[in-house]
Design brief:
single chain, 836 residues, 12 strands, disordered C terminus, five-stranded antiparallel sheet, elongated, alpha+beta, 11% strand, 31 helices, disordered N terminus
Length: 836
């Protein structure tokens, strides 16, 4: 039968190829006939061991129950007709009543199909004899539950007619044990051979398997031929088989023991070394023993197989992890909870110069700089309030569930010092201990060298820049004096030369000299600022007089171009304001000159506002607005850099050096103020100068009792938010104003701290994360300048635009100042972001 089953299983056999070419109905009839014959023979064998004292249908040996279960699990439900037909024939041949001959097989078919369904439902269509759960499920549902169903049905039918009531319990137990034995022995044997078996390592060799088989058969034979009670002698051998042999070998060994025992029982020998005794009871006890032995053997085999699988998987994983760790360039050192090194990878061996055996069993003190550990010990002791030293200094943070990441110095075996970045973490906790620690270190020697070189280069560049600036600042008088002489003589030539051609040439000399002098003045001012040689000298100033002077100076230029030049005042202008009039005048001259230069029609407006900060101190705001060509966004970001034109045009059309706005912003910063810009192409531009903490002689209260400069930021907003769909402006909601205030507070506090760090080391990922925080600071009510600034900065970081990102980062203080001034009063428009 086993040969036939293996032939049916082999997909490449010639017999199976011939079989597959036959009609399906023929294959089905042949299969039912063949397995029906097997069922009939197995059932007749079982009836040979029937308990004659009870009933010829009651037997403690029922191999058919296991055979039917295994074959239906293997071949499918379609074989139930073979089982039913052979059952009917077998009972008729046994001389049973015709009613019983039909009824008992019918119940047997039902309980067999139910048993198969239970096994498939709770265990699976394939029994894994290497899994404890699968084996236990098969024994429970296939052997115990199904045998109980068989015994209940069969004995129930027989007790109706042929079985006395006082023998019901013994008959049920006998039939139950026979059914369980059939499944545990014969069913397991068939399934282990017809199902695929995974190749496993660590099991017994063929020689060991044959030795176990021979000893098992010998022990079984000795039990029946000897007068000594040796029935339990095969048990330790089955334990050996379960722990060492493969599932197929175990089920075959159990099968051989059972078949041998059945042969001796059939020939009249008795188990347990007994000569006298009831055959049926002895047979029942023997089968109970067989079921226990078979079940124990299969469970032990599953346990051993599962353990071998786990050990193999663990070994493979350990080998893989070891290969990964050894292939890493990082140094990895593992210690136990007391600080003794238990494992190192090849990276640590390469880095430290020690062999693995020299490191194992030592402490990290071997590789750490004692001075650094002592310094860290003082720091940790002060923070923890406890006197910590040695290894505890390194693992103080990891014991709290945190990673300790910092720079250390490793000492190699040859004494060389290696700077490393070390991360120490605790392993899985065990019994309220850390369970050990893992230290992962990376050699940062190359990074340190690069940082040193970069710092040296930076210092050299800064020193060279300071030397250049100091040189220009020191020779400012020597440069200006000859240029003033040239201009003076050129002006004299213009006055005394009468010939038109020569007069024009003298005029060109004078004009070119003025341009060159302006460039020299700008360069010298810029050099003084960079060298720290330019000092702010406050003096009492009358704002109205300053504004009138600006208007008078630029009025002729405005009239020549047909422009309207307008002055606006916001707040009280009376009294004296103490600030550096020369530098403010220089900034306003630059701003007004640019506004007139880049405006061909419309107007140029100069607005001046005053807002009280505290008694005796105020903030001044100057705003220059034009209706000129505007500034493209891509040029606006670079507007305040040296040698950058306002709209990016060449000097051929508009002239200028590109230094005016850069100098103006630096002068504003020297005075503690800010210079901001916003623009829209085709609409115009606005430049806003703010100077805080201005000393004022007098009171700033206006006639209506209001302070501030409501018009200035309002004009910024009108240009910034010009849109047909937003013609009506509504006040900001209270929640939006609260969001604005919250963002301004964060910008001046935590965000400013983060910005200072990024300014020193602008890593792209960190900048992008910072930009996203700004962009989504208050959800839907995030102020527009903050949102737009964050969006632009994030895009530059994602696109690796180094120069543009650096420029945007330097604009953050301007944005902070904008946020601190708050939104425009009575307007839902947000101030434009600086530089966008």
């Amino acid at each position: 039968m086993l040969l036939f089953l293996k032939t049916m299983k082999a997909q490449d056999s010639s017999l199976l190829a011939v079989w597959s070419r036959q009609p399906s109905w023929f294959r089905y009839v042949a299969e039912v006939t063949f397995f029906g014959l097997i069922f009939y023979l197995v059932q007749r064998i079982g009836l040979q061991f029937a308990s004659t004292d009870l009933n010829p249908n009651i037997s403690a040996v029922r191999p058919v129950s296991g055979v039917t279960l295994a074959i239906i699990l293997w071949r499918g439900y379609r074989l139930w007709p073979a089982m039913w037909i052979t059952g009917v024939i077998s009972h008729i041949v046994a001389g049973n009543h015709l009613f019983e001959a039909f009824l008992i097989p019918s119940g047997g078919v039902i309980e067999a199909l139910a048993g198969v369904w239970l096994v498939r439902r709770f265990v699976g269509p394939v029994i894994d004899f290497g899994s404890v759960g699968s084996v236990l499920g098969f024994l429970w549902w296939g052997a115990i539950v199904r045998a109980a169903m068989i015994a209940t049905w069969t004995v129930g039918i027989l007790s109706w007619r042929d079985l006395p009531p006082d023998q019901f319990a013994l008959a049920w137990l006998t039939n139950f044990v026979g059914g369980a034995m059939g499944v545990a022995v014969f069913g397991a044997f068939i399934l282990s051979w017809v199902q695929p078996e995974a190749q496993r390592d660590g099991e017994a060799s063929l020689v060991e398997t044959m030795v176990v088989f021979i000893l098992l058969l010998a022990a079984t034979v000795m039990d029946y031929l000897s007068l000594m009670p040796l029935t339990f002698l095969p048990f330790p051998l089955l334990v050996w088989a379960g722990l060492r042999l493969r599932p197929r070998a175990v089920t075959t060994a159990v099968m051989s023991v059972v078949v041998t025992a059945l042969y001796f029982v059939h020939t009249g020998y008795k188990p347990f070394g007994l000569i006298e005794g009831d055959n049926d009871q002895l047979q029942l006890v023997m089968q109970v023993f067989v079921v226990c032995v078979a079940g124990t053997g299969m469970v032990l085999c599953a346990v051993a197989s599962q353990r071998r699988r786990t050990l193999r998987a663990t070994a493979e994983l350990s080998s893989f992890q070891k290969a990964v760790l050894d292939g890493s360039n990082f140094s990895m050192v593992v210690t136990d909870d007391d600080g003794v090194i238990t494992s190192v990878n090849r990276g640590a061996v390469r880095l430290l110069g020690y062999t693995e055996s020299e490191l194992l069993g030592r402490t990290p003190a071997l590789i750490h700089d004692p001075a650094e550990v002592a310094w860290r010990a003082r720091e940790v002791s002060a923070e923890s309030g406890r006197n910590l030293e040695g290894f505890e200094v390194l693992v103080w943070l990891p014991r709290q569930g945190k990673a300790d990441e910092r720079e250390w110095t490793y000492i190699r075996k040859d004494g060389a010092r290696i700077p490393v970045f070390l991360s120490i973490t605790a392993l899985s906790p065990v019994d309220n201990h850390a369970g050990g620690f893992l230290g992962v270190a990376v050699d940062i020697t190359a990074r340190k060298q690069a940082e040193t070189q970069m710092q040296a280069a930076k210092s050299a560049a800064e020193q060279a820049n300071r030397a250049k600036s100091e040189f220009l600042a020191n020779i400012s008088h020597e440069i200006r004096t000859p240029m003033n002489s040239i201009l003076g003589f050129a002006e004299l030539l213009q006055r005394h030369i009468i010939e038109p051609a020569m007069k024009k040439q003298a005029q060109m000399i004078f004009s070119s000299g003025q341009t060159l002098l302006q460039l020299i003045n700008d360069l010298l001012d810029l050099s003084k600022v960079e060298a720290g040689r330019l000092e702010i000298q406050p003096s009492p100033v009358n704002l109205r007089s300053l504004a009138a002077e600006m208007q008078h100076f630029f009025s002729q230029k405005a009239e020549e171009k047909g422009l309207v030049l307008t002055l606006q005042f916001h707040g009280p202008m009376e009294g004296q304001f103490h600030f550096d009039e020369v530098r403010v005048r220089q900034i306003l001259f630059n701003l007004m000159g640019n506004a007139l230069k880049f405006t061909d029609q419309g107007e140029v407006v100069l607005s001046i506002g005053v807002e009280e900060e505290s008694p005796g101190l105020c903030q001044l705001a100057f705003e220059v607005r034009d209706s000129g060509v505007g500034i493209p966004p891509e040029h606006l970001a670079r507007l305040f850099m040296p040698f950058e034109q306002r709209t990016g045009q060449s000097t051929r059309k508009y002239g200028g050096t590109g230094l005016g706005l850069s100098i103006s912003r630096r002068l504003a910063e020297l005075m503690g103020g800010t210079l901001l810009a916003c623009s829209e192409m085709g609409v115009g531009s606005i430049f806003h100068l703010t100077i805080p903490h201005i000393k004022h002689d007098g009171t700033l209260l206006s006639n209506n009792g209001h302070l501030g400069v409501p018009g200035l930021l309002g004009t910024v907003n009108l240009i910034a938010e010009r849109d047909e769909s937003d013609a009506t402006e509504l006040p900001l909601s209270p929640s939006a104003r609260a969001a604005w205030l919250r963002c301004a507070t964060l910008a001046a506090g935590p965000w400013m701290t983060t910005w200072k760090i990024l300014l020193q080391a602008p890593l792209f990922d960190d900048v992008e994360q910072f930009a996203q925080i700004l962009q989504n600071a208050a959800g839907e009510e995030t102020p527009r300048p903050l949102r737009e600034y964050g969006r632009r900065l994030a895009e530059q970081a994602r696109d690796f635009e180094v120069e543009e990102m650096s420029i945007s980062l330097r604009e953050f203080p301007d944005l902070v100042a904008r946020l601190q001034r708050g939104p425009a009063a009575g307007s839902n428009a947000m101030p434009l972001d600086v530089g966008s």
